[in-house]
Design goal:
The complex is a heterodimer of chains A (326) and B (293).
Chain A: H1 8-16, H2 19-22, H3 25-51, H4 59-74, H5 80-102, H6 107-127, H7 129-132, E1 138-139, H8 160-184, H9 186-196, H10 198-203, H11 208-233, E2 236-237, H12 244-257, H13 264-279, H14 286-300, H15 304-320
Antiparallel strand pairs in A: 1-2
Helix pairs in contact in A: 1-8, 3-8, 3-11, 3-12, 3-13, 4-5, 4-6, 4-11, 5-6, 5-11, 8-9, 8-11, 9-11, 12-13, 12-15
Chain B: H1 3-34, H2 41-59, H3 66-87, H4 97-119, E1 135-138, E2 141-144, H5 145-167, H6 169-179, H7 181-186, H8 191-213, H9 223-238, H10 243-263, H11 268-282
Antiparallel strand pairs in B: 1-2
The chains are: A mainly alpha (326), B mainly alpha (293).
């Protein structure tokens, strides 16, 4: 597998690069949102799919990232090059503190404690008017300074949304590539060992909690980075970014694509964001549609879209190979 | 701080507590027996509120129509719960808890939109039943009779369900089902029916609670998500699956919120979430619960 591994991240990145030139403004806008959501979902899948940790509060780190970046850029006027890494670092720091307690629990209790922490973050963001703007949030978060792009060939012709798409795409691609490296590293293999059999992993001498805490922090940091981009993309940071239904939403993305596949969450983000845009054109009842998608997923397609495709592909191969083994 | 203020806060906290207890007890029972954390419990509560409004409107806007409406709301939601369990939820039992969580979340989304479709997005309200109109004076506070009724109904239901669980054959079945489902099945009991019944009873409690809140608060979309978070805090503090734990969890929640607003108005919301986190850290199975294998 490793001998002739296809560099998917690079291929997908190159395929999506020309979007601002060939696509409409609307498609560029959608592409930005998909890229940001994909990073959020891929970071969650480090916990969910890779390590088997059901975090129902991943939105906390996404929200912290968006608030840190928003506050630094709007209130303190710091440039994006400083605010963006600070967002990831801030989210990771909170993940250290919260994760320390969370990894001592398992299964449903782990899920509930992550949820409790995310709600604490939400309550603070919602009430701490002086810093977070309370329920009004922080409006008019500025775009990063992208004037330097003007001197680049072709890029100079793009408007600010096109440039922000390119910036987001590059950052998200680098982050996803990094998460891919982590997943394939010996560290990532250990995480999967923990997922498959926690007791046995501990029995062969693995410090399970230390591994879980490490991946919790890494996942939180990347979620913070995606949150930072999201705040800028939406031109503001609001307490809704930290409210628990958003945790459910990113979880649905991950499972919709297929949490057993590295690219599952990205596929899920693409399908969900696109469907949302299409369906809200016809009806205001998007939540009901989302709920129905979720039901279909749970009952008919538990492996997600990629799982379904893999199963379909295998069935097709068997069919083409003839009925030899039937 | 005057005595009047303290008594007032205590009573308002107690009303919140007893009310939440009614909702949270159903949530806790289903987790205790079926190990399902039901996000849709708040949605059942909301549907109960809308059903009560609907029946009151059909019967008569004023008068004692409230009582049959409350009963109808509870029963209607119980039927809804039983159907959901029979047709869908039961197929997810052996699976990872993640799937059950997401299933109940799908119900939250669908039921929320169904309520918007059927009853619109405006605020609806129901009059207090005339029998319980008015109130009385207590150390300078006006206590509505309706609040007193809620404070009485909470413990009444607690004691009834507590007795059913500890003294009757049906209760023994339930406890056996929570201890070892397979063994009970092997002994010839109809565990499927027990689960359906359990889910229906829990839904009934949610629907009834939804009906009973209507004279105190207006019915709005979003009340489902709001209440489920509160109910979660209550059951986590008291101990998921522990009936009396839920009672005490509700008591603590109501008073912390009520006096928290008095002392630190900005952070009362924060304080209850923090309390939930501290309990989970120190005793994940709750202050009054037992560890679950």
């Amino acid at each position: 597998m490793s001998a002739r591994r296809i560099p998917w991240t690079l291929l997908i990145f190159l395929a999506l690069l020309p979007l601002p030139w060939i696509g409409s403004r609307y498609q560029t806008f959608l592409g930005t949102e998909i890229a940001i959501d994909a990073l959020f979902a891929v970071s969650l899948n480090l916990l969910l799919g890779t390590t088997g940790l059901v975090s129902f509060g991943h939105v906390a780190y996404f929200g912290i990232g968006s608030y840190v970046c928003g506050i630094l850029m709007k209130t303190y006027g710091l440039p994006f090059v400083l605010a963006f890494p600070a967002a990831g670092l801030g989210a990771a720091l909170f993940a250290v503190v919260f994760g320390f307690f969370c990894v001592r629990l398992t299964k449903i209790y782990f899920a509930m404690l992550t949820l409790a922490f995310s709600q604490i973050v939400w309550a603070v963001c919602f009430k701490w008017n002086a810093v977070t703007g309370g329920d009004q949030g922080i409006a008019d978060v500025p775009f990063p300074n992208m004037h330097w792009m003007a001197s680049l060939p072709y890029v100079g012709d793009l408007n600010i949304n096109g440039r922000f798409y390119l910036l987001s795409l590059v950052l998200v691609a680098v982050c996803i590539a990094a998460i891919g490296q982590i997943t394939r590293s010996p560290f990532g293999r250990m995480l999967t060992a923990i997922r498959d059999n926690r007791e046995r992993a501990a029995f062969i001498g693995l410090n399970v909690r230390a591994y879980e805490l490490s991946v919790f922090v890494v996942a939180g940091g990347f979620a913070g980075l995606s949150g930072a981009l999201y705040g800028i993309f939406n031109r503001g940071v609001f307490p809704d970014y930290v409210f628990w239904p958003k945790s459910a939403e990113v979880m649905i993305m991950t499972i919709l694509g297929g949490m057993n596949y590295f690219w599952g969450p990205t596929v899920g983000a693409f399908v969900l964001v696109w469907l949302n845009q299409e369906i809200t054109n016809y009806t205001q009842y998007w939540p009901a549609v989302l709920g129905s998608i979720l039901l279909i997923l749970l009952f008919a397609l538990p492996g997600g879209i990629l799982g379904g495709l893999a199963r379909g592909g295998a069935a097709l191969r068997r069919l083409l190979a003839g009925r030899g083994d039937a | 701080m005057t005595a009047s203020l303290l008594v007032g806060q205590f009573l308002s906290g107690l009303t919140t507590s007893m009310f939440l207890f009614l909702i949270a007890s159903g949530l806790s029972l289903v987790f205790g027996v079926m190990r399902v954390l039901n996000f849709a419990h708040g949605s059942f509560y909301m549907i109960g509120a809308y059903l009560a409004w609907q029946v009151v409107t059909w019967l008569h806007p004023v008068g004692e129509a409230f009582w049959p409406a409350a009963l109808a709301a509870g029963l209607g939601v119980a039927v809804l719960g039983a159907v959901v369990e029979r047709l869908l939820l039961r197929h997810l039992y052996g699976l990872d808890e993640l799937y059950q969580l997401l299933f109940t979340y799908a119900l939250v989304l669908i039921l929320g939109d169904a309520a918007k479709y059927l009853w619109g997005t405006g605020q609806l309200s129901v009059h207090r039943p005339p029998v319980l109109d008015g109130g009385f004076q207590l150390v300078g506070n006006t206590v509505p009779y309706y609040n007193l009724f809620i404070i009485a109904v909470g413990p009444a239901i607690a004691i009834t369900v507590g007795l059913v669980l500890s003294r009757t054959a049906a209760g023994r079945m339930l406890r056996a089902a929570s201890a070892d489902r397979e063994m009970l099945d092997a002994m010839g009991a109809n565990v499927g029916l027990i689960y359906t019944g359990m889910f229906a009873v829990s839904s009934f409690l949610a629907g009834l609670a939804g009906a009973l809140i209507t004279p105190m608060e207006s019915i709005v979309p979003g009340m489902d998500v709001q209440v489920i978070v509160q109910a979660f805090i209550v059951v986590v503090i008291g101990g998921l699956g522990s009936f009396w734990g839920t009672f005490w969890g509700a008591m603590i929640y109501g008073q912390v919120l009520s006096f928290g607003i008095l002392i630190l108005p900005e952070f009362s919301l924060f304080s209850v979430f923090a309390l939930m986190a501290v309990v989970l850290i120190v005793r994940p199975w709750g202050l009054f619960g037992r560890p679950i294998r």
